[in-house]
Design a protein that fits this description.
This protein is α+β, with helices and mostly antiparallel strands. Helix content is about 35%, strand content about 20%. A 4-stranded antiparallel beta sheet has the order 1-5-4-3, with helices on both faces. A two-stranded antiparallel sheet has the order 2-6. The two termini are about 30 Å apart.
């Protein structure tokens, strides 16, 4: 029960971070010569497969012992957001789900979010490696003047 009380605030925080990064991400890619094709490391997945990797992650997920301070997004996740946004201009944001893929390797699921706050599972969903991304604590810059205690 305690775990479910923590998951909603953590996911809400992560969504807030993602939504805050979206304008920057979209602006940073506007001058690229992107052909609209996924780059290496992005994999198209179904909602069913996305659900499976999330469930695999939740089997061994631990609750942070301190508040989530931030979330590191990597360039693959930003690329996935750009491709999804290009496909559907009506999306208001993106959600990143944590997952574990084959051999329990960390992955992220990137999905668009519609104006009602629902996952746009009828659109493209990407899976990316997430070895360099995730919440802080765990993936933190402990020397940053922003995150120092």
């Amino acid at each position: 029960m305690k775990k479910s009380k923590i998951i909603l605030p953590v996911m809400t925080f992560i969504v807030g971070i993602v939504i805050g990064v979206i304008p920057l991400a979209l602006l940073s890619f506007t001058r690229s010569s992107d052909t609209g094709t996924p780059q290496r490391g992005l994999t198209l997945v179904s909602a069913t497969e996305a659900n499976a990797v999330l469930k695999n992650y939740l089997k061994t997920a631990t609750t942070p012992t301190e508040p989530i301070k931030g979330f590191l997004l990597d360039t693959l996740q930003l690329s996935a957001m750009k491709l999804i946004a290009k496909e559907n201009k009506t999306l208001v944001g993106f959600r990143i789900y944590l997952g574990k893929g084959i051999n329990n390797i960390p992955v992220s699921i990137v999905v668009g979010v519609d104006n009602k706050g629902a996952d746009a599972t009828g659109n493209t969903i990407y899976k990316t490696s997430s070895l360099k991304s995730g919440p802080c604590p765990y993936i933190c810059d402990v020397t940053s003047t922003i995150s120092k205690d």
